[in-house]
Amino acid sequence: MQSKVLFEHGAHRWVMFARDPEKPEKIIDTNQYMIVNRDQAMLLDPGGIELFSAMLGCVVKEVPIEHITHLFASHQDPDIISSLGLWDKALPSSTLHSPWLWESFIRHFGMESIQFSPIKDEGGKILLSGLEIQFIPAHYMHSSGNFSVYDPEAKVLMSGDIGAAMDTQDAPFFVRDFNQHIPKMEYFHRRWMPSNKAKHDWIERVSRLDIDMMCPQHGGIFKGDDIRRFLDWLDTLDVGIAVK
């Protein structure tokens, strides 16, 4: 698995873990992220159980294991949080932040030592060694209980499955040509996002944020003007196509 520092200012960093060449062929490629601030770190959508050993090996090269005090799961899907039972053994003093709606589902992955901190529907925030991290409601995008993560100091939005693209294993970390990127996103968003009303609500919320990077759970990261291009494209896209 590859790791890449996306943002760094003093003791504040965003790190991406992705493009694992040893990933099983039929397992979807995922992006995992970590926010580091001084002596605390938070893993965002830390991945499926099959990625745990690769993730752990990469993470401990970036921070001491005891610095990982928080985890975040945007929703309940196995590709982002089925590794929880193993993290539970590695990080017994950590706290998992996730939608309140999914607690009883997520516990099926195994959680005996990690504490569960439910995120209310309206969102919330935590402090990471004094750094404010915000949970932005993204309900029905595509899960009925779902959140994005925003770091106002780094100006980074971790958008989860919003902005996801089905890309190749050797694809670049960043979107290089937005128009060529659209076919990699279109069917996923039209099928997996069920509600145009929910879509417009999320777009309205994030349009008020100052964002330099939008980091999805699959595919390339959006930077600069491509963030607005994505929001405009998504705004006009008709979703929920399985319902005729």
Automatic annotation (TrEMBL):
Signal peptide: none annotated. It holds the Pfam family ODP. It comes from the Bacteria. Residues 29-218 form the Metallo-beta-lactamase domain. SUPFAM superfamilies: Metallo-hydrolase/oxidoreductase. This is FprA family A-type flavoprotein.
